[in-house]
Amino acid sequence: MASDSKVHTFEEVAKHNKTEDCWLIISGKVYDVSPFMEDHPGGDEVLLSATGKDATNDFEDVGHSDIAREMMEKYYIGEIDSKNVPVKRTYIPPQRPPYNPDKTAEFVFKILQFLLPLFILGLALAVRHYTKKE
Question: What is the mean pLDDT of residues 40-44?
């Protein structure tokens, strides 16, 4: 690890959230794991899902080996300014228009697909009944 570690802000670290440029915050330290993305045993999706937040719990929950912890040293790029790291990221659901299944064109089409064959069957039975010679 470098003796003169740089202090990064949370906003700065959060910008690095792509496969080719990925920084993680683990135990108050910042790691540039971009070169490790393809080699990570869990795949790059696991690392990308830990960006933009304190990934300490994600890292510890997996139970990484001592070798994995030693490997982290070569990706270390500095410390995080802990004053501006959010305690927990709040989930904000995406905005969607209200869904009303009764008024969509697909709903009408599905109803017609069901009712039209029943109508034809009923019509056929009525024609047979009234045209049948006794």
Answer: 86
